[in-house]
Write a structure and sequence with these properties.
The protein has helices spanning 15-25, 35-38, 90-102, 131-139, 148-170, 175-184, 187-196, 236-239, 246-254, and strands at 3-7, 28-31, 45-50, 66-69, 81-84, 118-125, 204-211, 215-221, 257-260, 266-272. By secondary structure, it is an alpha/beta fold. The chain has two domains: 3-102, Response regulator (Rossmann fold, 3-Layer(aba) Sandwich); 118-275, Heat Shock Protein 90. A hairpin with a 5-residue loop joins strand 9 (257-260) and strand 10 (266-272). The protein is elongated and about 60 Å long.
Length: 276
Amino acid sequence: MKKIGLYLKELTDVKERLVTFCENEDFDLIEIKDDKILEEIDLSWIMIITDSPADLLNIQNKKIPLVLIGNKISCEGNMLCYNISQDFTDFCLRGVIDAIYHGGIIETYNTSSKPEYIKKVIKVFNDIANVDKIVYGLTKELVYFLKISEIQKIRIGISEILTNAIEHGNLEISGDDKFKATENGTYQELLKMKMCDEKYKNRYVTMEIEITPEKITVVVEDMGNGFDTSTLNMNPEENLLKLHGRGILITKMYFDDIVYNEKGNKVTLVKNISQC
């Protein structure tokens, strides 16, 4: 279980809210009472929440971010710090954790309002190396609606589908071609060759995400020739360990519905938030 440290000297009234947040989000909240606990910091620690960063200068070499509660405090030394207000909400904290996970920029979350409906449409070029960053940018607002653990699952599913759309759709790399290239250690060369080919290099994937308090809908459409969707096998025992077809199966684990168009180059993913 991921850990969040807590060191408060003055703003002790927020402790109960932080305890509840960590319980709901499945994080282990570790109250820092002495230096011995700081010596145990490892990669399972996400951050330390504090109102007294000057007392924690000895953790600079741990490279763990500090989240400062209050408007009148700032970091000292070379520590990486983020600020949240004393009247923080759950989605404010989720946003901070999400940004730390993905190296993103902390958004300004207004504690007196939250969106009820979000829709985005983007074009994604054939940049497989940055799929995770693209999906993170597309889904940052999910912190308003879901726990971090659920957001991570949804992102995994979207990333798998987007990767398929680029590889098998736009670049027309078949499952057999990918398998052989992976076995021979030449997959990166194959990918680079396809991305530079005049036939494929200007293709892109259109992605649409629609978020409401009830459900999340993601539509992914590539510019390839599609495939025969009747050949899909959703049996986890047969496909989960296979190189080809595994991505769709993983996505099926995290979404309630997966629907392809007749051509097979457009897929709609639906996640019911009420079930999360």
